[in-house]
Amino acid sequence: MGEMSSFQLGVIGALFLSVASSVSIVICNKALMSNLGFPFATTLTSWHLMVTFCSLHAAQRFHLFENKSVDMKTVMLFGILNGISIGLLNLSLGFNSVGFYQMTKLAIIPFTVLLETIFLKKQFSQQIKMSLLVLLLGVGIASVTDLQLNMLGTIISMLAIATTCVGQILTNTIQKRLNVSSTQLLYQSAPFQAAVLFVSGPLVDQLLTKQNVFAFKYSPIVLAFIILSCIISVSVNFSTFLVIGKTSPVTYQVLGHLKTCLVLGFGYTLLHDPFTERNIIGILVAIFGMGLYSYFCTQENKKKQSGDSLASQMKDHKETTALLGHQENEGHEVKKTAKNSVV
To answer: Can you give the pTM of this predicted structure?
Structure first.
C-alpha cells in the first residue's frame, strides 16, 4: 500500500511538472518568436537538447543519478527517430495551415491507440475510447480553424504522426523492458537527438523562414530569452520521459492537449490573444473529456489492483494449504513409525 501511494504521488508530481514546464516554455518561446522576431524553432530545439544533455552529465558527475549502459544501437536509433519526429513536426507546421497542423497533433492519439493495439496487444475499453473522442472533439473545436490541404504537407504530416507515435511508444517500452529510468534513457539518447537537429535545424529553419540563423542579430534580450528557454527545456524533456515511463504514450498525449487548453487560456489572459465563444466551448468539452479519461483510467487501475490482490491471496492460500497438508502427512508418518517401533 505504501509503495502504491508513493507511485501515485510520483505520477502526480510528474504530471504537474510536465504541465507547468511545458506551459512556461510555450509562453517563453512565443515571446521570443512573436515579439522578438526569433523564428528558428528547430535550431532552438537542438540547443534545448544540448543543454539538457550537459545538465544531466553534470548531475551524473555529481552522482545525482546512476548511469546505466543500454545497447548503443538501440539508443542511437531511438535518439535519431525522436530527432527526426521533431523536425517533421516543425516542417508540418511550415508546409500546412495552422488548422491542419492542429489536426495532425490530434491524430497522434488514435494512431498511438491503433499501434499499441496491433503490435503490443494492448486493450483499450470502450469507455476510454469514448473519453478520448470527447477530448479530441473539444480540442478540435478550440484550436482547429482553417483546413487547407496540399500533397507535400499531407505526406510530411503523416510521417510526423508515425515517427512521433513510434518514438513515444518506444520511450515507454524501452524503460520497462530494459529496466532503465527516464533520466538514464534521456541522458543516453539526448546527444543523438541533438546531433540530428543541430545538423538539420539551420537547414529546416532556412527553408521555412527564408532566414539564416547564423546571420541573425542577437540582442541581449533575445539571448536572455534563449537562455531562459533552454533552462526550462531541461524540465520539459525530463518530465516528458518521466510521464511516458510512469503512465503511457496515450496519457502523455492527453496531457499535451490539456497544455493546449492552458496555453490558449494563458495566451488570452497574459498576451491578450483573441478569444471567442468557440474557444471557450472547445476548452470546456476538452476538459470534460480529460475528466472522463482520468475517471475511467482510475477505475480500471482499481479493478486491476483488486484482481492482482485477489490472485495473490489465492496463491498464498494454496501455498498455505499445501504446506499444512505436507505437515499433516509428516505427522501421520511419525505416528506410524512410532507404532511400528512399539510392536
So the answer is: 0.82
